[in-house]
Amino acid sequence: MASRTAPARRRFQLALIKPSHYDDDGYVIQWMRSIVPSNTLAALYGLFQDSATRQVLGSDVAIDISVTDEINRRVLPSRIIKRFRRHGNFGLIIFAGVQTNQYPRTLDLARPLRDAGIPVAIGGFHVSGCLAMLPGLQPDLQEAVDMGMSLFAGELEHRCDDILRAAANGSLMPVYNFLNDLPDIQSVPSPVLPRRYLARTI
């Protein structure tokens, strides 16, 4: 009687990236070590790890989460593209906690990723602040939408499952605006980062 092996699980690639910014001469500001870990990345890792543990994409899909803080580690789009291609671009890249001075760098990193067909989302203070204080979609935000990126304004708590499912089935919306719908954070997972991502912080 022939033995049966379990089918290989699909692996959804989730890359959480905190971009740096350019100095006055156009160089990316980076350090060998940073002072403290990014709380934004820690909060998102805790939320998405909870989603992965609960198998929100189904028992036949594993979720691989990577974390990169560009302030102390290089972001290489070519390497990211190779990783995603191995999995048929089944995944999502989230540029997290993007401030206004980091937004141009974010678009430069995201452009080749979108050219490669990888889903990309941008969240953080710049997106949220523009949508909260300025009328309509400002030109720099429209540029991201025109490249096929998704913009996220507001808090991600209790919304990670929906974002993952939308990315997995190719139905991400251009803009998610939850600024007027603040979530209850009493029962959300605590911010956490695995030790391997803390090696370059003091």
What would you say this structure looks like, in words?
The protein has a single domain, classed as Rossmann fold, CATH 3.40.50.2300. The chain is 31% helix and 17% strand. The chain has six helices and six strands. Helix 3 links the parallel strand 3 and strand 4. Helix 2 runs parallel beside helix 3. The protein is globular. The N and C termini lie far apart (58 Å). The model has no long low-confidence stretch (mean pLDDT 92).
Q: Any chance you could write out the topology, listing elements then pairs?
A:
Layout: E1 10-18, H1 39-53, E2 61-69, H2 77-85, E3 91-95, H3 103-115, E4 120-123, H4 125-133, H5 139-146, E5 150-153, H6 160-168, E6 175-177
Parallel strand pairs: 1-2, 1-3, 3-4, 4-5, 5-6
**Superfamily (CATH H level) name:** Response regulator
**What is the fold-level CATH name, i.e. the topology?**
Rossmann fold
The structure class reads alpha/beta
Q: Tell me about the largest β-sheet.
A: 6 strands, parallel
Tell me the β content.
15-25%
